[in-house]
Amino acid sequence: MKVYITGRFYEKEDATISVFDHGFLFGDGVFEGMRSYNGNVFRMKEHIDRLWNSAKGLMIEIPLSKDEMIAAVNETLRINEISDGYIRLIVTRGIGTLGLDAHLCKNPQIVIITDHLKLYPAEFYEKGLELVTAATIRTNPAALSPQIKSLNYLNNIMAKIEGHLAGCVEALMLNDKGEVAEATGDNIFIVTREMLWTPPTDAGILEGITRQVVIDIAGEFGVPVKQSPMTRQDIFSADECFLTGSAAELIPIIKLDGRVIGNGKPGRLTLQLLERFHAETRK
Ligand code: PMP
Questions:
Q1: Phi, psi for residue 257 in degrees, rounded to 5
Q2: Is 149 a catalytic residue?
Q3: What three-state secondary structure class fits 254?
Q4: Which of 87, 115, 143 is the C-terminal boundary of a domain?
Q5: Catalytic residue among 12, 118, 127, 149
Q6: What letters, b where the CB count within 10 A reaches 16 and e where it falls short, cover 26-36?
Q7: 142 and 84, same structural domain?
Q8: Ligand 1 pocket: which of 53, 173, 184, 187 to mutate (most atoms <8 Å of CB)?
Q9: pLDDT by residue (tens digit) across 229-255?
Q10: From 36, 106, 122, 177, which residue has the greatest number of CB atoms within 10 Å?
Q11: 211 and 258: one domain?
Q12: For range 75-86, the mean pLDDT
């Protein structure tokens, strides 16, 4: 497995970044997680645009053009002979001093890692997942925009640990108003009375690329989509629930905090959307 670091390919064992890189010292960097299907990176342009916007927020100057970045991602897939895989694209602030001064970091580093996919087991898609609500909340968007997909994922990690302690592979995160935000690495949707409902971006969520694909497919299906604040009770009383993300695609949720959602099985609309989503990835 070869890893791209700022213009060169390294064997996995030799693919290292300096301990003085502010990405390591402070989580000062941005990233994207993408999927390739049959050699094509799904919604690559959207991911690259989001990476650039995250970097702009942090004032990190990416030392490539978007086209060069796309070429580097494709080359990394090609060199590793991966056609259906996962791609992690990272841009760090680069090497600096032990102080916070970002302006002393002159060379942002680009890392591209590709791997074969480690999806949730098929059984989870067939039976659905159970979630618990984490006590760790999402960062207030006024403190740090959730649209900046930064290397600091501490709230999400703590929430995921809470999920694990409760025997769940994912956890639900609320915002500082107590509203539903998202799962630790995925957006959330519910279905109530044949309508899709997902928290709005100002609930402190990352505006997921898969979330938008699902909203677009719902539009094609003629299913109305509501984006307004959601509570846990809305999920308890929903007919269906699912998460969306580049790695997970659409994964059904059948229980939250011990409450069975709908009939406790992956819902009809969830499965229809998943089928249509698969068709979209193969286009
Ligand atoms: N929310 C968070 C916090 C995420 O990190 C991600 C991506 N892993 C998502 C939602 C899903 O976004 P996307 O569909 O763009 O992968």
A1: 45, 45
A2: yes
A3: strand
A4: 115
A5: 149
A6: bebbbbbbbbb
A7: no
A8: 187
A9: 999 999 999 999 999 999 999 999 999
A10: 36
A11: yes
A12: 96
